[in-house]
Amino acid sequence: MISKGQIKYVKQLEMKKHRKSEGAFVAEGPKVVGNLLNAGFTPKIIFATEQWKDNSYAAQLVTDEELRKVSFLQHPQQVLAVFNMRDNLLPSAVSPLALALDGIQDPGNLGTIIRVADWFGLTTIYCSPDTVDAWSPKVVQATMGSIARVDIIYTDLVQLLSKAEVPVYGTLLDGENIYEKTLAPQGIIVMGNEGNGISQAVRPLLTQHLLIPQYHEGAESLNVAIATAITCAEFRRQGNLKIKK
Asked: Which partner for 91 in 18, 102, 146, 151 could form a disulfide, CB atoms 3.0-4.6 Å apart?
């Protein structure tokens, strides 16, 4: 049985200040929880119904009704786990091509971008301090487990990019057609805020301006997650990222 104290503890982790103070975050569902366990994340507690198939880790057995009391999902999925966060440190091996997110606000967008990065083999994402917290339940769920394989680093982008020794790419309306541009095998791709794009502080630090061409004038601007996917796909098409087997 889940205690009232346990329910309160899990629910508090929806708030960033509690995640930070506890050094913990919530993940749900066999796919997401399984990927985090396989990546070496340490669970503080696992709540699971009898349907959960992984017996490698000790879990507190709960009913479907009890799981609903702690879940952040409309339809809970067999297992919910609280994991210890990893330190926000530079990884030992930064991927040759990395993303830098400048003020991304929507949890769904960030989760999708992390998933896109994982798909295309980018293992490093730098985030400005005002980017939404990658460890919020909504973001973690939207990554579908990809957050286990991508290093998320919150840092001052101006300081980071001003010292960059690789090309710094950004998608702007005054950029060169991405499909006609030769893309370097190393670099940092900056993606901007949903409403305002790349900030005025970061724009002068871009060394390469890219444009995703619009083929129909009546179409709305691209969602930042979709734009990220298109950009990463073009780098991949040019052979700058190796497929992991």
From this structure: 151
Give per-residue pLDDT as tens, 162-206: 999 999 999 998 899 999 999 988 999 999 999 999 999 999 999
Question: For residue 245, is pLDDT > 60?
Answer: no
Query: Letter for the amino acid at 243?
Result: I
101 and 191 in contact (C-beta within 8 Å)?
A: yes
Assigned token pair, 142: 């939207």
List C-alpha distances in Å: 226 to 70, 187, 217, 219, 245.
Answer: 32, 20, 18, 14, 25
Biggest alpha carbon distance in the chain? 60
Average pLDDT, the chain: 91
- Alpha carbons 228 and 114: distance in angstroms, whole number: 10
Cα 82-83-87 angle, rounded to 5 deg: 145
User: Model's pTM, two decimal places?
Assistant: 0.90
